[in-house]
Specification:
The chain is of the alpha+beta class and about 230 residues long. The protein has a single domain, classed as NADH Oxidase, CATH 3.40.109. It is built from seven helices and six strands. It has a four-stranded antiparallel β-sheet. β3 and β4 form a beta hairpin. α2 crosses α6. Bound molecules: 3-iodo-tyrosine.
């Protein structure tokens, strides 16, 4: 085989810590992440653009199928575009809340106090619209992407963690259907909207639902063999 076809590897030792420090770091990171809450009530206070850029750089470190990084993050601060997005989203949500969603769904949403009105789409200083790229367009030619939903979901998870780490809040908003985002933002045909994420500070009066997370026993199942040693 030609040398050019060989994979190009470089050494990697990772980041390593003594065991006690690992334990402490893992506990502290959990405690920090457990403070993240989805917020729907935003302040209009501005955020430096560099913070948004660092958050998106972090999101873009996520693993992806064949390292294709099949995502685009559109950052909107233009009040005219925010208004257009709000109007289009509210039109769809009005239909959702008045017949398109099942009674069970409406009932499941009751604890969150949501309705068809989405003022945060204009109040939050930035809207980040995550697009997934079903395929890449390289000089007009289609190039396949792999595990696109998994990849973009992972990147969005990293994005939310980075937003929290910066001391900001976000809402993972899913207006449905959301093809209007592709039109308003004039995205190319290979991009499809994935999530709409308002980012900012919580308003001074912000409240969140009084809900708990599942305990470990309800999300973790061990399969220890007989030979398991406690390390
Ligand atoms: N898209 C609607 C409804 C909605 C659906 C789910 I699942 C939520 O967790 C929250 C809301 C809306 O944005 O109101």
């Amino acid at each position: 085989m030609e040398k050019d076809n060989q994979p190009n590897f470089i050494s990697y030792r990772g980041v390593r810590y003594p065991k006690a420090e690992m334990l402490q770091r893992s506990r502290e990171f959990y405690q920090f992440m457990n403070k993240r809450r989805t917020v729907r009530d935003f302040s209009d206070k501005l955020i430096p653009e560099e913070i948004i850029e660092n958050i998106i750089l972090t999101a873009s470190t996520a693993p992806s199928g064949a390292h294709k990084q099949p995502w685009t993050f559109c950052v909107i601060s233009d009040p005219v575009i925010k208004k257009a997005i709000r109007e289009a989203a509210e039109k769809e949500e009005h239909l959702n809340y008045h017949g398109r969603m099942s009674e069970e769904w409406i009932e499941d949403l009751r604890p969150f106090g949501t309705d068809w009105q989405k003022p945060f789409l204009e109040t939050a200083p930035y809207l980040i619209v995550v697009f997934k790229k079903a395929y890449d367009l390289v000089k007009g030619e289609k190039r396949k992407n792999y595990y696109v939903n998994e990849s973009v979901g992972l990147a969005t998870g990293f994005l939310l963690a980075a937003i929290h780490y910066a001391g900001l809040v976000a809402l993972t908003h899913t207006p449905s259907p959301m093809n209007f985002l592709q039109e308003i933002l004039k995205r190319p045909e290979n991009e499809r909207p994935f999530l709409l994420i308002p980012v900012g500070y919580p308003s001074d009066e912000a409240e969140v639902p009084n809900i708990d997370r599942k305990v470990l026993g309800n999300v973790l199942v061990y399969y220890h063999g007989k030979g398991k040693e406690k390390t």
